[in-house]
Specification:
Helix content: 25-40%
Strand order of the largest sheet: 3-2-1-4-8-5-9
Number of strands: 9
Distance between the termini: 61 Å
Radius of gyration: 22 Å
Strand content: 5-15%
Shape: globular
Largest sheet: 7 strands, mixed
Structural class: alpha/beta
Number of helices: 9
Order of helices and strands: HEHEEHHEHEEHEEHHEH
Low-confidence stretches: 5-9, 11-33
Mean pLDDT: 89
Length: 279
């Protein structure tokens, strides 16, 4: 009888130990597999970093500071990683010319693409790349999209092709790419890129392009075109339809009651307004 009770005790203890160990292992894996949220900035303010803090529970948060001479004058939370990349190093690696008005120069998006392409041991499925004038009402705005589009390589607002928008004033950049690469005119399209989500696979495609041709091309064309060329999965969430180039029709909310927490909004350059409108 006593032996039987002792045996049962050891069995129950063993099962409990397995359960606790597996539970810890699973929690560690969930931490390791956090997706990446990367903000693209020049000289970010203290209020901006306060907004970034909202996302640290669900994302590995990175802030790319384009101005390498800028010294952040306030204490930062250790959950936020600051990224500074030498512009010359980035340029030599072929990561430059994604910003329309800064051709032959490496800016924050070039630096972000270069930085993450080098992080071989960093575990993630996708990276959100967000400009600082994009308003995200709450953390669930992004996590809901991640759950809804688990297998997409690119999330962006839309896709605009040359035959549909011949009046767009920057198609000459696609002509340049066609001249030095094996890309056909039919695969080029543009979109707003102030907020996009790219997969690890797509980042590798971009890295291969930069390595092969020692340059990139304007970001409005870059993500969609390289995705199409490599047959990646592209999705256009309804929640990203409120991304505009210019808010000339008062389409961006200025009061909390008008904010839909599922939507991503652009432009909202007033960071204090972003803080006020968060839900």
């Amino acid at each position: 009888m006593i032996r039987g009770l002792l045996f049962l005790f050891f069995v129950i203890t063993f099962v409990l130990c397995l359960f606790i160990t597996n539970d810890k292992k699973e929690s560690y894996q969930n931490i390791e597999k956090k997706e990446i949220l990367c903000f693209l900035t020049v000289r970010p303010s203290e209020t901006f970093f306060e907004l970034c803090q909202r996302f640290t529970e669900n994302y590995k948060v990175y802030v790319v500071v384009d101005d390498n001479s800028y010294r952040i004058p306030y204490p930062l939370n250790q959950d936020i990683t600051i990224v500074r990349v030498d512009s010359n190093e980035c340029y030599r690696a072929g990561f430059h010319s994604t910003v329309l008005y800064f051709q032959n120069k490496s800016c924050s998006r070039d630096k972000a693409l270069y930085y993450f392409s080098k992080q071989k041991n960093l575990r993630y499925r996708y990276i959100w790349m967000i400009e600082e004038d994009v308003f995200i009402p709450c953390c669930n705005t992004l996590t809901d999209l991640d759950r809804k589009y688990k297998n997409a390589d690119l999330l962006c607002k839309d896709s605009c092709r040359r035959e549909e928008f011949p009046e767009w004033g920057h198609w000459q950049h696609s002509d340049r790419v066609i001249a030095y690469s094996n890309y056909r005119a039919s695969i080029f399209s543009f979109t707003m890129i102030c907020a996009v989500r790219i997969s690890r696979r797509l980042l590798k495609d971009i890295h291969r392009f930069a390595s092969k041709y020692n340059q990139l091309f304007i970001d409005e064309l870059l993500f969609l075109t390289i995705s199409t060329k490599n047959k990646r999965k592209i999705r256009f969430p309804e929640e990203m339809k409120h991304i505009y180039y210019i808010d000339d029709g008062k389409l961006i909310p200025e009061q909390k009651e008008n904010v839909n927490k599922q939507n991503i909004y652009h432009p909202m350059k007033n960071i204090e307004l972003q803080k006020f409108l968060q839900v």
